[in-house]
Amino acid sequence: SGVIASIAVFLSFAAVCALYLQVLNGTLQSVTLEMFSWLKVGNLHIPFSFLLDPLSVTMMMVVTGVGLLIHIYSIGYMGEDEHANIYHESHWRLWVSIGHHSYVLSIRFC
């Protein structure tokens, strides 16, 4: 039912743990990945980019760790539901992997 999705979230958590080890060792520096120019008018340039730094890696640890625990719990909770596969394979995996990581990594302007 939700085993494939749980494995996908666990692999994401393992990748973030590898990044977190680099944070603890002090080898991870701040990296900005600019995907494209979102808005450019005159001297104003607003890129669509992601920032990977120790704070964002720490937040990804929280997001994927808690998301994995919720995912494992929901396997039992949704076990008798006839639409459990839709919940696990589609909605929840997209919410954890794409939605939260994109928010955590995005550069926010204050």
Looking at this protein, list some descriptive labels.
63% helix; 110 residues; alpha+beta; flat; single chain; two-stranded antiparallel sheet; 2 strands
Present the secondary structure layout.
Blueprint: H1 3-25, E1 31-41, E2 44-52, H2 54-77, H3 84-105
Antiparallel strand pairs: 1-2
Helix content: 55-70%
The SSE order reads HEEHH
Shape: flat
Rounded to an integer, what's the Rg over CA atoms?
17 Å
Model regions low in confidence, pLDDT < 50 over at least 5 residues: none
Distance between the termini: 42 Å
Question: Roughly what is the average pLDDT, rounded to an integer?
Answer: 77
Tally of DSSP helical segments? 3
The total count of strands amounts to 2
Which structural category fits the helices and strands?
alpha+beta
Largest sheet: 2 strands, antiparallel
Q: What fraction of residues sit in β-strands?
A: 15-25%
Strand order of the largest sheet: 1-2
Short description:
The chain is an alpha+beta fold.
